[in-house]
Design brief:
The protein starts with a helix and ends with a helix. The longest helix has 29 residues. It has a three-stranded antiparallel beta sheet. 68% of the residues lie in helices and 8% in strands. It is globular and about 55 Å long. It has 163 residues and is mainly alpha-helical.
């Protein structure tokens, strides 16, 4: 068994120098990419990536509405963070909250016409930025590899969350 294989199988407690270099490159690059996309989205549409994530989830939901707890889980946020963010979005008229008819003390988040229009207006420029900053920088094979890496990391994090 090689040192790298032993590290992946739990035989090593710490990553190798090369694994740490790759990790740092990965984190620094994804942070820079996220920052650039956030900046472009904000300048193109006055929406944050958080706004966009909420609007995307609601636009895809049945009746363009979701329970706030389901929305938080869907976008991977803590419920308190989402609640504060929804308050800001509600003041801007992008969403509205109402009591859930089927769940006592449950809240439902609804996409407003203003929110739907803001989402539609932001989508093309945002997709263009994703194309320019991510897709065009990679070969088709690298895109597939990135998808496999993302899926493996997501599966690992999902399994750890269930422990």
């Amino acid at each position: 068994m090689t040192e790298a294989t032993a590290g992946r199988r739990g035989g090593r407690q710490l990553p190798t120098a090369e694994e740490l270099r790759i990790w740092r490159d990965f984190i620094e690059t994804t942070t820079a990419l996220g920052s650039r996309l956030e900046s472009r989205l904000q300048s193109d549409s006055s929406l944050s990536t958080g706004d966009y994530a909420v609007l995307l989830a609601l636009s895809e939901a049945q009746d363009q509405a979701m329970r706030s707890s389901a929305l938080a889980a869907h976008i991977g946020w803590e419920r308190s963070r989402l609640s504060h963010h929804l308050g800001r979005m509600e003041r801007r008229g992008l969403i509205r909250r109402q009591e859930c008819a089927t769940v006592p003390r449950g809240a439902e988040v609804l996409l407003t016409a203003t929110g739907a229009e803001a989402f539609r207006a932001a989508t093309f420029p945002h997709l263009r930025a994703i194309r320019e900053l991510f897709v065009d920088a990679l070969t088709p094979e690298q895109i597939l590899a990135a998808g496999e890496i993302a899926a493996a990391l997501k599966a690992r994090l999902d399994s750890l969350r269930k422990e």
